[in-house]
Amino acid sequence: MTTIYDPKHPQYLDEADVRNELTRVYDLCHGCRLCFKFCTSFPTLFEMIDRHDDQDAGRLTPAQQDQVIDECFQCKLCYVNCPYIPDLHEWALDFPRLMLRADAMRHANDQVSLRQKATDTVMGHTDLLGKAATLAAPLANKMVGAKPGSLVRKAMEVTTGVSSVRMLPPYARQRFTTWFKNRPKLRITKRQGKVAIFPSCLVEYQAPGIGHDMVKVYERNGVECTLADTTACCGAPYLHSGDLKAFTKIAEKNVKDLARSVRKGNDIVVPQPTCGYVLKKDYIVYVGTDEARLVAEHTYDAAEYLMRLHKADGTSLDTEFNGFVPETVAYHTPCHLKAQNIGLKSRDLIKLTGAKVKLVQQCSGIDGMWGLRAENAELSIPMARKLADELKRAAGDVVAGDCHLANTAITEQTGEVPLHPLQLIARAYGIPEEGEQR
């Protein structure tokens, strides 16, 4: 048995070694139980082990081990609570990376169903889908915007594996990068920073308004904006489905291109938390080069970068907010921002407007695209309902959240459309939404 989280290790995909490591970690988790509330993986694990009088994790069958793996949706909240993580404890327990390793092993050893492979293929080709859907946005949106549970959505579920009962974010008519290239260029007289924007697939194809407002807020604060040398998908759908070969290929290319952007004097800014996590954390593990570390060191969440300017010597943010400032904001903290261990920068940014911020830290149960898969809807939707209940209790005048997929789940359960924090800041400055008349 080896405690392996290095995907380049020769035994990384060895099934016997992975199964033994699963037994070791499951036994430790069963004895600890601190993570029982984060997802269903842990209650499922504990219940299966508790069936045996000797409570031996080694008695679990491979199918039972795999059930725990399938219920893990990579929220990363284990890192927030686990006392046994690598570098902090000799047991070196890294549950999220072990789940990724197990997924990769099953994929490499052809232990994935044809149905799952088909869904992985559909969800993995985010750029291909996004380009096609934005070109035919009215038609595409009739399909994704069809009533959950309708015949159209049921047909989509059969062909794509995407749940027929979940709300899906619509596609934009114009991609973010198209808008960026065509917009009037603004000359910045007092430059406080220089960034290359890695928009993420969600902002590029489905929520370009987040990118519009981010650019306008950044430029208002003296930050020169360009596009990163790549705006392709970060590869997270492949990583989370266990396709190590496809993810590594994407990651290596993106690292090369993003490193080029950094060498031009740019920091990389990412407006979506999952993609930011991949650039900061996963590229170091799966690419493992000096360039990967260079990219990680210069990658920032959108709010993180602004708060860095505000706190640093010699730079500051414009804190004159003459637009719409809500009295209270219910702010949902995405799991993949918590896992970046950067603090609550979006909350701090919103507080600069004078609004009172009420934190809501319940997971949405989406985490990448796990919650949109048909087989996971039964587990995911109750988490989204818990989030909706927390937001109702918070009773904010406005709901805000950084993750567009989590925000879609919020809309699904509450009917309210959350704002990205950068959109909220733009409205507070009095910057109108793109397309609105002043």
Attribute tags:
438 residues, alpha/beta, 3 domains, 22 helices, globular
Textual characterization of the structure:
The protein folds into three domains: 94 residues; 127 residues, no CATH class; 102 residues, Rossmann fold, CATH 3.40.50. The chain is built from 22 helices and seven strands. The protein is an alpha/beta fold. Helix content is 52%, strand content 7%. The protein is globular and about 70 Å long. The model has no long low-confidence stretch (mean pLDDT 94). The strands form two sheets. Strands 2-1-3-4 form a four-stranded parallel β-sheet, with helices on both faces. α20 crosses α21.
Short précis:
The protein has 438 residues and is α/β, with parallel strands linked by helices.
Topology record:
Elements: H1 15-32, H2 41-50, H3 62-71, H4 78-81, H5 95-108, H6 114-124, H7 126-135, H8 137-144, H9 151-160, H10 176-182, E1 193-197, H11 200-206, H12 208-220, E2 223-227, H13 236-241, H14 244-263, E3 267-270, H15 273-286, H16 290-297, E4 299-301, H17 302-311, E5 328-332, H18 335-338, H19 345-351, E6 356-360, H20 377-394, E7 398-401, H21 404-414, H22 421-429
Parallel strand pairs: 1-2, 1-3, 3-4, 5-6, 5-7
Helix pairs in contact: 1-5, 2-3, 7-8, 7-11, 11-12, 12-22, 14-16, 15-16, 17-19, 19-22, 20-21
Number of domains: 3
Work out the helix count: 22
The level of helicity is 40-55%
| Shape by Cα distribution | globular
Average pLDDT, rounded to a whole number, is 94
Number of strands: 7
Main beta sheet:
4 strands, parallel
Tell me the fraction of residues in β-strands, as a range: 5-15%
What is the rounded Rg? 22 Å
Q: Strand order within the widest sheet?
A: 2-1-3-4
Order of helices and strands: HHHHHHHHHHEHHEHHEHHEHEHHEHEHH
Q: What is the straight-line distance between the termini?
A: 65 Å
